[in-house]
Structure formats: C-alpha cells, structure tokens
Design brief:
CATH class of the largest domain: Alpha Beta
Number of domains: 2
Strand order of the largest sheet: 3-2-1-4-5
Shape: globular
Number of strands: 9
Radius of gyration: 20 Å
Structural class: alpha/beta
Largest sheet: 5 strands, parallel
CATH topology of the largest domain: Rossmann fold
Order of helices and strands: EHEHHEEEHHHEHEHHEHEHH
Length: 349
C-alpha cells in the first residue's frame, strides 16, 4: 500500500487538534493509503518511558481523587487517545518526507503564523508539489503583516492541490497568488456521527443529572455566566465546565471523553470551533460566544454557511433549545462529496 504523511499541529493538550488529526488519518486510510502523522520534535514522540511515567502519575491522581497530578492525568488521556488512534512517524530530516507517496497538509490552523512559524516544512516545499495535498488547512486569521505575506506567497504559488477551511483563507490565497481555491469543511465533518460514537468514551466519573456543557478556550464571557445560571436554575440542570480545575475529573477530559460529553449534553455553551462541529455532529443545541480578545467569526460563519445553518451567535432566550438541523445532512452529503471528488481525482492519477 502507498504511504501518506500528514503535516499538522502536533498538540497533545488540545481536544480539537487531536480529533481533527484522527479525522484526517481516517480519511487518508479510507483512500487506501497508510497514514502517518509527522513528528519533527523527537521529544514529543510517545515513547514507552514517557508512557510509564504518565501511568504512575495517573495512579497518583486516582488514589488521591484528583488532588495530585491533575495536569499529568489529563495529558495521559491525550496520549492514550493518540497512541491508540493516530499512527505517527518521527522525522529526523525533513527530506525523509520524500519517502512517502503523498503528503497531506492540514487540518487545523497549521498556517496560522501566531501558532506555527511559516516555513518550508508546513507548506511541504521539500516535496514535489504534485505529491502534496491540502486538506482544509486554516490560516486562522483574515490577514497577515507584510513580512509574513512576502514569505508565504512563493510557498502558496508552488502548491498545486490547494484548498482551505475558511472563505477568508481563500481570499488570502487569491490576493497573494491570483489562484481561486475551494473552501472545504473541516475533516471532523467528513466522518459520520456513527463513526464518532464508536470512539467516544464515558468519563470515569460523571454527574448523573442532565447537564449544560461549557467549553471556552478563551475567558468565559459574562453573558455566558448569566445564561448558564438562568438555564440551570430554570431546568434544574447541572453544569460541567471542562476547564474548571476545581473539578479535577472534569478538567481531565480527554478527546474520547469530550465526544461523550457533547453527545449527551442538554446544551453546549462555547467559543470553540470544534465544539460547534461536534454539537452539529450529534445534533445538540448550542450557543456560540465571541472569544474575548480574538476574532473567530470567519471560521464560524463559513461553517454555518456551508451547512445551511443559521448563526449560533444569536441566542433565543425564549426558546433556547431551538435549532434547525433539517438541512444539515443534505449539506453534509454535498460537502463530503466535494472533498472526496477532489481527493479521488488526485490519488487516482
């Protein structure tokens, strides 16, 4: 079988990153290729020594009921999920990428210069361009400063099989290179709901009552605090806040547990793109709040537009659980077909 390298952000602490990495691996696998996510920093590889250390810390967390080693216990969930579900490969010299039949770039914000230094590596410049396939990479922003744009323009010009996750990304490429490129859905939407249910995992300890799930990557807005209290009081719901360290068993949520929590929540309050994606996957009601100090409207607006959904930034206080999913499955089928056609035309060449 042919082999495919995957260049993406290797973040063992970010839920959305791990789940999109898993999705890309499955997409590549379905195309009859052997996927390997590339690790360029050997210190980040999942070695047996590191695994043994985390297992000891997990033991400490459990016997102290979350009073010790909370951060390490959370990391272990990420390591376990990655080890079981995402094949990886450590590259010591970037020229080793030429040993692969294809190199996929994406998804996530692999081209966001605030997170990843723009380089020949993240644009796969060391590989013949016909072997490089983008899979919904994101710039994460609507514009760059002049120095960054000057650096990435020749990288983008060299790439042949280009696409992006947001309309703003397509506009950046058009302005810098003159190329019109397709806008595709996030890879996590390429898998079916049933495929995600297969890997979800019930948390070790979870409240038995119905709950509101809160997941904010930025500071939680006051509006959300008020909305949570109002909804919880009115309907008698408990609240699970994934990033609340005062509740260690919640804070220790890993990727598989995160899927379960969204799937079974009565309502989700979030500022996270991938929280929205999985709320849609599981057809749960959710409200989106603007992230404090960061604009994320482009990625959200593109998501809702591609799936024929109304904006979730608008919150109906009188009917909080109302959400129209009637057109989503048809839109998903259409968007999945667009991605599959794009990939099949390249891989079958």
């Amino acid at each position: 079988m042919k082999k495919a390298a995957i260049i993406t952000i290797w973040d063992l602490e970010n839920l959305g990153n791990r789940l999109q990495n898993y999705a890309v691996s499955k997409i590549v696998e379905k195309k009859g290729l052997i996927p390997k996510t590339i690790i360029i920093d050997e210190k980040k590889a999942l070695t047996l020594k590191r695994r043994a250390k985390y297992l000891y810390w997990c033991f400490c967390f459990i016997i102290t009921n979350g009073k010790k080693r909370i951060f390490e216990y959370r990391k272990q969930h990420f390591h376990d999920f990655t080890r079981k579900n995402i094949p990886s490969y450590v590259v010591h010299n970037q020229k080793e990428l030429n040993e692969f039949d294809y190199v996929f770039i994406g998804s996530d914000q692999i081209w966001n210069s605030a997170f990843v230094e723009p380089s020949e590596y993240v644009y796969a410049q060391m590989v013949p361009p016909e072997k490089v396939i983008c899979i919904s990479p994101s710039f994460g922003v609507s514009s760059f400063d002049e120095e960054i744009e000057k650096k990435i323009t020749p990288y983008l010009e060299r790439l042949i099989h280009l696409n992006v996750r947001e309309h703003s990304g397509a506009e950046i490429i058009k302005r810098l290179t003159g190329k019109d490129v397709p806008v595709f859905i996030d890879p996590t939407l390429m898998l079916t709901t049933e495929e995600w249910i297969q890997i979800e995992k019930k948390p070790r300890k979870i409240i038995k009552n119905k709950y509101i799930l809160k997941y904010f990557l930025g500071k939680e807005p006051e509006e959300s605090v008020k909305d949570t209290k109002k909804l919880a009081d009115e309907y008698g719901y408990d609240v699970i806040n994934v990033f609340d360290k005062n509740f260690p068993w919640q804070y220790a949520t890993g990727p598989a547990e995160f899927l379960y929590l969204i799937h079974h929540a009565e309502m989700i309050f979030t500022d996270s793109f991938h929280s929205c994606v999985f709320s849609i996957q599981f057809k749960r009601p959710f409200w989106v709040y603007k992230r404090i100090g960061e604009s994320m409207n482009s990625r959200m607006d593109t998501l809702f537009e591609l799936l024929n959904m109304e904006s979730r930034f608008v919150h109906d206080q009188n009917d909080p659980f109302r959400i129209d999913y009637s057109g989503v499955e048809t839109a998903l089928e259409r968007e999945r077909e667009r991605v599959n056609s794009f990939l099949d035309n390249i891989i079958s060449e």
